[in-house]
Amino acid sequence: MTPDTTKRERAEQILGELAELGLMLARDLAVQARAAETPEERALLTEAFHKTSRTVRLTLALSFKLDRDASRDAREAAREAEAQAAEAERRESRIIKPAPGRITPEENQKRRVRNILNRLL
């Protein structure tokens, strides 16, 4: 496991725990708000419920975003590895290995140039 993977897993665990705690708190606030005796108390509990439930929604949204980002990163890494492998294959296929004892066009050209230079000198 890489440090990034370990970090991501730990962050996901924390987010899950925060979402659970926030959900429990929101449930308790909802029950208390319904049981409130005065309008002021009900308003305060309703506002607290609203803030808590919003926090839970944002926590869940962040968790899903992290999952999407991890999936996207994995797809990009796979594409990049595939592209590198294809490029390496292309490079390898361009290298023509001459049969033993056979003169390549490059070697033939080098000999011609060398012979011409020797005659000129």
Q: How would you portray this structure in words?
A:
This protein is an all-alpha fold and 121 residues long. The protein has one domain. Helix content is 87%, strand content 0%. The radius of gyration is 34 Å and the shape is rod-shaped. The two termini are 66 Å apart. The mean pLDDT is 87.
Uncertain runs with pLDDT below 50, 5 residues or more?
none
Average pLDDT figure: 87
Compute the CA-based radius of gyration: 34 Å
Number of strands: 0
Helix content range of the residues, please?
over 70%
Task: Supply the number of helical segments.
Answer: 3
Explain the layout of strands and helices.
Elements lengths: L2 H33 L3 H56 L10 H16 L1
Helix pairs in contact: 1-2
Short account of what is shown:
It is built from three helices and no strands.
List keywords for this structure.
single chain, 121 residues, mainly alpha, 3 helices, 87% helix, rod-shaped
